[in-house]
């Protein structure tokens, strides 16, 4: 990676650097910047290249490893890859086949067009039903042997996402997967969250559940919980509690997958 990425100019081990699609997009976006990006209110100083957090709050050892059949295609608003709080990064950590492209109103990456045409994928554009012509809307994911689902997510603020939806003609032919309000509210209830909007990794988790991959869905949701804790505690300069229920849950999901209970943290 070019030395223009300040995250890579610190002393963290090179091996810790993830080179997934969002990390690459971030590096490319930084290379085009004339001045360093400073997230408002975010912690300053050295960051881990693998998780973007300060080293004392590094999340890398908790990054889940599991097979995921579905793919995710993130179409990201210009500034999203630079935000330390962007959760598309977490999707790329968990879903091996995550693709990421920057969005622009007047041009489109030919690699994105090729991906959407690729026969191995069945793309679904994920967007709320209320804003879409009814004929395009689907609410379930068709399981087929030959095609894996590819969830196309507009990773942006809500006003940006609406603009991207309207001004991306190459997305017009895709079926639109709308998350049902019942499914969404059950999810909210389980996670005790009040916000009416989902973040990108929450949407991806709901999509994985619809694709019949409940373990991947739970793992991504649990990983977001742990990331949120690390991120907020770093901002408040408070230590991470690695025995918290969120950590225990994520670790137990991984331990159950490998059938080795001894991996669970013992208090
Ligand atoms: Zn890290």
Descriptive notes:
Strand 1, helix 2 and strand 2 (98-102) form a beta-alpha-beta unit. The protein has one domain (6-266). Helix content is 35%, strand content 11%. The chain contains 8 helices and 6 strands; from the N terminus they run αβαβαβββαβαααα. It starts with 20 loop residues before the first helix and ends in a 9-residue tail after the last helix. It has 267 residues and is α/β, with parallel strands linked by helices. It has a 6-stranded parallel β-sheet with strand order 2-1-5-3-6-4, sandwiched between helices. It binds zinc ion. The site of zinc ion (ZN) has 8 residues, from loops.
Q: How are the secondary structure elements laid out?
A:
Blueprint lengths: L20 H11 L39 E6 L11 H7 L3 E5 L7 H8 L3 E6 L10 E2 L9 E8 L2 H9 L9 E2 L3 H11 L8 H11 L3 H22 L9 H14 L9
Parallel strand pairs: 1-2, 1-5, 3-5, 3-6, 4-6
Helix pairs in contact: 6-7, 7-8
Quick structural summary:
With 267 residues, this protein is an alpha/beta fold. Helix content is 35%, strand content 11%. Strands 2-1-5-3-6-4 form a six-stranded parallel β-sheet, sandwiched between helices.
Radius of gyration: 18 Å
How many E-type strands?
A: 6
Strand order of the largest sheet: 2-1-5-3-6-4
Mean pLDDT across every amino acid position = 84
* Bound heterogens, unique: zinc ion
Beta-strand percentage? 5-15%
Helix percent band: 25-40%
How do the helices and strands follow one another from N- to C-terminus? HEHEHEEEHEHHHH
| First-to-last CA distance | 40 Å
